[in-house]
Amino acid sequence: MSHFYQIALLGAGGVGKSDLILRFTQNRFEDCYDPTIEDQYTKNLELDGKAVKLEILDTAGQEEFSHLINVYLEQREAFLLVYSIIDTYSLEYVKKLCQMILEKKRDIPIMIIGNKADLDKNRRVKIEEIQEIAKLFKYCSYIEASAKLNFSVTESFIEIVRLIWKKNVDN
Ligand code: GDP
Ligand code: MG
């Protein structure tokens, strides 16, 4: 039995989507990753004794996302929505994405990641600000992480797999 899931990271530009993927798939971190890249990565992992293969779509984050979001919703099984804890605009962007997703699929698994948790002294977003919107989804978790310090990165990707499994058990 193989577990293959196609997922995508969405969020405003500069929040660390590419670095989260680089950290998770290659244990690397780059200070100036190309902001325009839209690429796909794969990662094999083992969870609860099961082999899991993830195909992860990295998005550019500044597209006309009202159209693209529908395409992603058709093609992807789950989403990681990323904001930066030092950027209130990026939180608003995630909330907007949530609204658009909620209009279409309330039961799609969603992991909301507050990245750059290492920059706590410049914090502009409290984790509590995510609670309300997260509650509206059937399968949603949220966490703060740091791609730079490799903090809660693997956990975030594992959690999205668990959310997918939870949904599959219900259906
Ligand atoms: P993307 O546009 O969402 O793909 O963002 P990138 O992954 O390209 O990262 C944008 C910028 O934020 C880069 O300069 C990264 O080095 C920086 N960055 C990414 N993750 C972190 C993090 O966890 N902590 C800190 N301090 N900087 C980060
Ligand atoms: Mg990027």
Summarize the structure.
The chain has 171 residues and is of the alpha/beta class. It contains five helices and six strands.
Residue runs with pLDDT of under 50 for 5 or more positions: none
Q: Please, what is the average pLDDT?
A: 94
Largest sheet: 6 strands, mixed
What share of residues are in beta strands? Answer: 25-35%
Sequence of secondary-structure elements:
EHEEHEHEHEH
User: What is the distance, rounded to the nearest whole angstrom, between the alpha carbons of the first and last residues?
Assistant: 18 Å
Class derived from helix and strand content: alpha/beta
Q: Give the overall shape, derived from the CA principal axes.
A: globular
Bound molecules: guanosine-5'-diphosphate, magnesium ion
Radius of gyration: 15 Å
Count of DSSP strands: 6
Widest beta sheet: strand line-up: 2-3-1-4-5-6
Q: Give the helix proportion (percent range).
A: 25-40%
InterPro entries: P-loop_NTPase (IPR027417), Small_GTP-bd (IPR005225), Small_GTPase (IPR001806), Small_GTPase_Ras-type (IPR020849)
GO biological process, one term: signal transduction
Pfam families: Ras (PF00071)
Keywords: GTP-binding, Nucleotide-binding
